[in-house]
Amino acid sequence: MSMVRWILVVVIAMLIGFFVYVDMNNGVPDHLGVNEGLLAPCPDMPNCVSSQAPVEDEQHYVEPIIYRTSVKLAQLKVEQALLSQGNGRIIDSRLGYTHFEISSDLFGFKDDLEIYFPEADSVMHVRSASRVGYDDLDVNRERVRQIQDLLVD
After folding, report:
1. Residue predicted with more confidence, 25 or 137
2. Pairing of strands 110-116, 97-103
3. Residue 32: exposed, middle, or buried by beta-carbon count in 10 A (0-12, 13-18, 19+)?
4. What pLDDT sits at residue 121?
5. Which one-letter DSSP state was computed for residue 68?
6. Where are the beta strands (DSSP E) in the chain?
7. pLDDT confidence of 153, banded at 50, 70, 90?
8. Which end of the chain, N or C, is more open, meaning fewer C-beta atoms within 10 Å of its C-beta?
């Protein structure tokens, strides 16, 4: 019976350690934003997608989203849609750029979604990345696809 207790103690300690690790690494990254017209590059892990990644980088590249309205209307439409889902909040928003923090349903893992509208273009660039973990099971790629579906009608 004592062996079962030790196994249970070890499992509980590992779970506590996991959640402490996630909590410590779930803070807002300080390297995000637009710098000289570019969003931050994706790290060398499959938990990030960006429309500004090199096209040949199949793991990270997603196509920029073309929209047919004003920047203001497109940005508001995306912001309203993401906020209405109930699991996101805006970290930073100004005309042409928004940074969202989106929490997963089950464990509350946080992802960063940035949308950037370069001036004088009808293109929206996106970067969606998980803060913790290695693989995101294509959650970020699917999020970008949903935004594309929202703007392409």
Report:
1. 137
2. antiparallel
3. middle
4. 83
5. S
6. 48-50, 65-66, 88-94, 97-103, 110-116, 123-130
7. low
8. N
Residue 31 confidence (pLDDT) above 70: yes
Burial of 33 (0-12, 13-18, 19+ CB in 10 A): middle
pLDDT of 96 higher than 70: yes
Specify the pairing of strand 123-130 against strand 65-66: antiparallel
Kindly write down the DSSP assignment for every residue of 128-150, as one continuous string. EEESSSS--TTHHHHHHHHHHHH
Closest CA to 85 of 73, 103, 110: 103
Percent of the chain with pLDDT over 70: 90
What is the overall mean pLDDT for the chain?
Answer: 88
| Ramachandran assignment for 102, one of left (phi > 0), alpha (psi -120 to 50 degrees), beta (any other) | beta
For the chain, report the end-to-end CA distance as a whole number of angstroms: 63
Most distant CA pair in the chain: distance in Å?
Answer: 71
Task: Output the pLDDT for position 52.
Answer: 97
**Rounded distance between C-alpha atoms, residue 85 and residue 32, angstroms:** 23
